[in-house]
Amino acid sequence: MNTNTPENPSAAGTAPDAASTPATPGGDAASTAVSPETRAALASTAHAPNSPGATHIRSFVHRRGHITQGQLAALERLMGAWSIPYAPRRLDPAIAFGRQAPTVLEIGFGMGETTEKIALARPDDNFLGVEVFNAGVGSLLRRIEDSNIQNLRIIQHDAVEVVRDMIAPDSLAGVHIYFPDPWPKKRHHKRRLIQPAFISLLASRIAPGGYIHCATDWEDYAVQMLEVLGNEPQLANTADGYAPRPDYRPLTKFENRGLRLGHGVWDLIFKRVA
Ligand SMILES: C[S@@+](CC[C@H](N)C(=O)[O-])C[C@H]1O[C@@H](n2cnc3c(N)ncnc32)[C@H](O)[C@@H]1O
Predict the structure, then answer these.
(1) Which of 119, 112, 208, 189 has the alpha carbon at shortest distance from 156?
(2) Distance from the CA of 81 to the CA of which of 143, 151, 165, 274 falls in 20 to 30 A?
(3) Closest CA to ligand 1's atom 13
(4) Is the pLDDT of residue 40 over 90?
(5) Is 240 a catalytic residue?
(6) In a mutational test of the pocket of ligand 1, which residue from 67, 181, 195, 254 has the highest number of ligand atoms less than 8 Å from its CB?
(7) Atom of ligand 1 nearest to the CA of 133
(8) Considering the entire predicted model, what is its pTM?
(9) Domains along the chain?
(10) Ligand 1 atom, smallest distance to 113 CA
């Protein structure tokens, strides 16, 4: 982690215009040409936990790490078409998606496997995926292209800031937070995303009647989620404790393996009260 680089929030998502960037057929060429903008975004430490200017404890460590040539090529080629740069001002979903439709926010989509399936299965909803991890963003961009997904946009930035700055109060139809980083060590619990202050902020962005759906395979995090969501006055549990997994959330490969090994998975679905 490098905390010496000045924060440059605009680096994330400032991808080149897709139209001005030559496509890389196949996307896996060994010598993917990378523009200065993509290189800057990849190298940015703007989102590091302790970067100067951070006003809250980050729920992630860094967004660098291994990235395949295909993911890199997708970032280079598709960011301009499908991502929305972070900016400290309200997003107008009708403009971002080119239509009026219920908007569901997904925080931390990882490699985007679940995001792709849900966006395809629910074409009448808009999905806004927020992730900090370069390889994950590259992976979801490839899925968008390969599956010709039209109802999905990406913001590559800390979701806490996206929710605070870009999402209007009472505006979201739903929020998905699937398998957030568990931060298992007690001294790291402060990095967990599901904390009272963030849930209060997030709940204020959900429209009355809208929902928040979390899932985790860490039992003690599930207990924390139930407590935090249960104590938030803007939310009401739709189940008596944990909820059955709804059909729209597909089982991931990782989750399937865990279930075969006898590990538990806990879903929580709360509604925003009026
Ligand atoms: C354990 S992974 C789960 C990924 C995916 N939801 C799944 O079910 O496979 C958690 C993801 O959340 C992302 N993440 C953590 N904190 C975040 C934040 N504050 N803003 C955006 N993404 C975040 C991480 O980069 C990581 O990809």
Answers:
(1) 112
(2) 165
(3) 108
(4) no
(5) no
(6) 181
(7) 25
(8) 0.86
(9) 102-272 (3.40.50.150)
(10) 9
